Amino acid sequence: MSGDGKPWTTLGFEETQTAFQGPTQRARVWTEGWVARSMFCPNCGAEKISQFPANRQVADFECRGCSEEYELKAQKSRFGAKVLDGAYGAKMLRLASDNNPNLLLLKYDRARLSVTDLFVVPKHFFTAEIIEARKPLGPLARRAGWQGSHIRLDAVPLSGKIALVRESILIPKETVLKAWRETLFLREEGLVARGWLIDVMRCVEEIGRAEFTLHDVYAFEARLSRIYPDNNNVRPKIRQQLQVLRDHGWLVFEGRGRYRLRSAQ
Ligand SMILES: [Zn+2]
Q1: Range 218-224 contact pairs with CB under 8 angstroms and sequence separation of 24 or more
Q2: pTM of the model as a whole
């Protein structure tokens, strides 16, 4: 562990005396206040990220140092396989743009008035496959025809869920920044190429061992064929992704079809 070991913040909320009425509003003031006060930028390491003045459609915070944007989702229950998100059309439009926001997922404890878990999904893990359309609202709804979205957290590899707080323990800032840097290479890839890399990363992680063979990854051939039905060369495609992941240091070739995850060193 590097750095001076000093925790980068405290987990308690400060805005506990707010006069807001509803519990949802109160929780929003608590969690947004905490992020504005505590959160550093995992991209450039700046000490703070700033809240956007008004409610914007997609992003909530911005780093003044590197212009990276962040969207905050906070809830008191554990995050499951899917997270509810905003308008599907707007999400898809933002997907390919430079200022697509990173996603901050914060879980808090209402009784203790504190943050218990926080992780960030860097924007380069978002692909069309991860943003799922919800059914449009019916004709009788106030916003008839409006279509929301889900973010499929279950389709994001572990490398794309970077913990900042886990079970009320702060992860050292250096550890967070390092984890962030390790997958930054995905930003250089187009959306489709990124999709393949992310899917292969997920397969490799599912093997569940730091060392694995090409054969272990081929075991996911059927699944990848279902995701990419037009591709008839899934095995060569898998090898190609492993090479790109090797070139960027995410894994290491040990020779003779054996591989090792870099993060497991
Ligand atoms: Zn920054």
Answers
A1: 224/199, 224/200
A2: 0.90
Query: What is the CA(49)–ligand 1 centre distance, in A?
Result: 7
C-alpha 179 to ligand 1 mean position (Å): 15
Rounded to whole angstroms, the Cα distance separating 25 from 28 reads 5
Q: Which two tokens stand for residue 243?
A: 């090479």
Q: What is the pLDDT of residues 78-133, one digit of tens each?
A: 999 999 988 899 888 888 787 789 999 999 999 999 999 999 999 999 998 899 99
Which residues crowd ion ligand 1, with CB under 5 Å?
Answer: 41, 43-44, 46, 63, 65-66, 68
Question: Residue range 47-56: average pLDDT?
Answer: 83
- Hey, how many other C-beta atoms are within 10 angstroms of the C-beta on 175? 15
- Distance (angstroms) between ligand 1 centre and the Cα of 43 equals 5
* Cα-Cα end-to-end distance for the chain: 13
Is the pLDDT score of 174 beyond 50? yes
Q: How far is the CA of 174 from the centre of ligand 1 (A)?
A: 14
Can you give the C-alpha Rg of the chain in angstroms? 20
Token reading at 200? 């292969």
CA of 157 to the centre of ligand 1 (A): 23
SS3 113: coil
Q: Report CA(142)–ligand 1 centroid distance (Å).
A: 39
- Opening angle at CA 169, ends 166 and 172, nearest 5: 95
